[in-house]
C-alpha cells in the first residue's frame, strides 16, 4: 500500500449528522493546574490544522484566548510550533497562523510480530525518517529479543543523523493480551514461550529511553489517528491483519482501551460455530479461520493439494509468510482457487466487522497490516459487501472501508506514536515539562 490511497468502494458515511458529532473536538478546561492537559489539547489542534490562528484555537478548544496565548508562547519557545504566515481577518488586522514543526522531536517505534521486527524513527507528523526490518527466529526468546531491539533502535537513530536527545521515547507494539499498567506481555497466543514478560522495563533499561508498550492493533489505530490528520478525525475501527487479527477502536478521537487495556480482540470473534480450534482456547474464531496460516490450510482443504502445487506453495509451517504471500499474489492475478480462498476469509472478516459496526456505530473502517499485501482491493470489496450490503443498514449509515494511510508500517508507526499521543505518559506532557 502507498500513502494517500485511492478511493475505497464505500463512500464516506456522512449521511446522519447528529448534533453530538459536531461537538466531538476535544475541549480544554480553564481550571488552573491542568496546563499539561491543555497544552496537549492545543498542540493536537495545531497538529491537525494546516495553519491555525490563536483565536481559532480558542474557539476549537473552548479555552480563553489568554490561556491559548500563554500555551502558544510556551510551545514557540520549546520549538514545537512555528508562526508560518498570516491570514486576513474581518477586522482588517491579519492573524498569525501557527503550524507544528515536525522535525522538532522524534520517537522510535518497534513492532514485534512473531517472526518480524520492524523499527522506525518517526517525526512529529508521523512521517517515517528511517526504518529497519529484521526477521526474528521462530519463537523469539525474550532474553535475546531485548538486546536485538536495543541494537535496532540504535541503528535507526544513528542512520537518521538525529541527536539522541531529540528522541522523546520508545513505543513497543506486541500482540496481546497485555497488562498495560505494568508493561507486561501476558502469554500472547502468537508469541510462544512468552509468559508475563516485563518488556517495558527491560527495553526501557536497555535503551535508556522512556518506553511504553501496547497491543499492536491499538498502536496501529493510534498511529493512524496521529498520521492521518483531519482524514482520521472522529471515530473509526482499525482492523489489523498481520500474523494475528486485531482491532483498534478510536471513538470520538479517543482510543477505546477497555477495563484491562485489551479492548479490540477482534480476531477472537466467533465466525464459525464449532469451527477450527483457536490458540486462545475457543473454537471458530476469526483468527483461526482467516490468519495467513489458516488461509493456506483452507486452500488445501477446499481446493486440494493440487491447487497448492499449482501455485508453488511449500506447505512448510515455517514458511507460512512466504506461502501466504504467494497465495495473495495468485489471488490478485486472478487464480480462481486463490481468489475464492481470500474472498471467503474476507467475507468472514466482513461478518465480524458488521457486528462491530452495529455495536459501535462507527462510519469508517480502516484496514492495515502486511497480511493485506496484494489483496487490499479484494478484501475491501468483500467487507464492503458485508457491511454495506443491506438496504436498511445503508439507510442508517454507509460505512467507508479504507486502506490505512500509514501503510504496511502501521504497527511500527503506531508504536512510535504511542510516545507522542496525548493520552499516554510520557507524551506531550513529558516534553513540555522538560522545556
Ligand atoms: Zn480465539
UniProtKB/TrEMBL annotation:
GO molecular function terms listed in the Swiss-Prot or TrEMBL record: DNA-binding transcription factor activity; kinase activity
Keywords of this entry: Kinase, Transferase
InterPro entries: ATPase_NBD, HTH_MarR-typ, ROK, ROK_cs, WH-like_DNA-bd_sf, WH_DNA-bd_sf
Renumbered residue ranges of the record's region Disordered: 1-30
Protein name from the UniProt record: Sugar kinase
Domain HTH marR-type: 38-94
Family annotation (SUPFAM superfamilies): Actin-like ATPase domain, Winged helix' DNA-binding domain
PANTHER family: GLUCOKINASE, ROK (REPRESSOR, ORF, KINASE) FAMILY
Keyword Cell inner membrane carried by entry: no
Keyword Acetylation: no
Family: Belongs to the ROK (NagC/XylR) family.
Pfam families assigned to the protein according to its UniProt record, in alphabetical order: MarR_2, ROK
Amino acid at each position: 500500500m502507498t500513502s494517500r490511497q485511492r478511493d475505497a468502494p464505500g463512500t464516506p458515511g456522512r449521511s446522519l449528522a447528529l448534533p453530538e458529532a459536531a461537538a466531538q473536538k476535544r475541549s480544554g478546561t480553564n481550571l488552573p493546574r491542568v496546563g499539561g492537559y491543555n497544552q496537549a489539547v492545543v498542540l493536537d489542534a495545531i497538529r491537525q490544522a494546516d495553519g491555525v490562528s490563536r483565536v481559532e484555537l480558542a474557539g476549537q478548544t473552548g479555552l480563553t484566548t489568554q490561556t491559548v496565548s500563554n500555551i502558544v508562547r510556551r510551545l514557540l519557545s520549546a520549538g514545537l510550533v512555528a508562526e508560518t504566515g498570516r491570514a486576513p481577518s474581518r477586522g482588517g488586522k491579519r492573524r498569525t497562523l501557527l503550524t507544528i514543526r515536525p522535525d522538532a522531536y522524534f520517537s522510535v517505534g518497534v513492532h514485534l510480530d512473531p517472526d518480524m521486527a520492524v523499527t522506525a524513527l518517526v517525526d512529529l507528523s508521523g512521517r517515517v525518517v528511517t526504518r529497519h526490518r529484521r526477521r526474528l527466529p521462530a519463537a523469539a526468546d525474550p532474553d535475546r529479543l531485548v538486546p536485538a531491539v536495543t541494537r535496532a533502535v540504535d541503528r535507526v537513530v544513528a542512520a537518521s543523523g538525529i541527536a539522541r536527545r531529540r528522541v522523546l521515547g520508545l513505543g513497543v507494539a506486541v500482540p496481546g493480551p497485555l497488562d498495560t499498567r505494568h508493561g507486561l506481555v501476558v502469554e500472547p497466543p502468537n508469541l510462544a514461550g512468552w509468559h508475563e514478560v516485563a518488556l517495558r522495563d527491560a527495553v526501557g533499561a536497555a535503551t535508556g529511553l522512556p518506553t511504553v508498550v501496547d497491543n499492536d492493533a491499538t498502536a496501529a489505530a493510534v498511529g493512524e489517528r496521529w498520521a492521518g490528520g483531519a482524514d482520521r478525525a472522529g471515530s473509526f475501527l482499525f482492523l489489523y491483519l498481520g500474523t494475528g487479527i486485531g482491532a483498534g477502536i478510536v471513538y470520538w478521537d479517543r482510543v477505546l482501551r477497555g477495563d484491562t487495556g485489551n479492548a479490540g480482540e477482534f480476531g477472537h470473534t466467533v465466525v464459525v460455530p464449532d469451527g477450527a480450534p483457536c490458540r486462545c482456547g475457543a473454537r471458530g474464531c476469526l483468527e483461526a479461520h482467516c490468519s495467513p496460516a489458516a488461509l493456506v490450510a483452507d486452500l488445501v482443504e477446499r481446493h486440494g493439494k493440487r491447487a497448492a502445487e499449482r501455485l508453488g506453495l511449500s506447505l512448510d509451517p515455517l514458511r507460512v509468510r512466504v506461502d501466504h504471500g504467494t497465495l495473495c499474489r495468485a489471488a490478485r492475478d486472478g487464480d480462481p482457487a486463490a481468489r475464492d480462498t481470500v474472498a471467503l476469509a474476507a467475507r468472514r472478516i466482513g461478518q465480524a466487522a458488521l457486528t462491530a459496526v452495529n455495536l459501535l456505530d462507527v462510519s469508517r473502517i480502516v484496514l492495515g497490516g502486511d497480511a493485506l499485501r496484494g489483496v487490499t482491493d479484494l478484501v475491501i470489496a468483500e467487507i464492503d459487501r458485508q457491511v454495506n450490503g443491506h438496504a436498511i443498514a445503508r439507510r442508517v449509515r454507509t460505512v467507508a472501508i479504507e486502506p490505512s494511510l500509514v501503510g504496511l508500517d502501521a504497527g511500527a508507526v503506531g508504536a512510535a506514536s504511542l510516545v507522542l499521543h496525548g493520552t499516554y505518559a510520557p507524551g506531550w506532557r513529558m516534553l513540555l515539562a522538560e522545556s
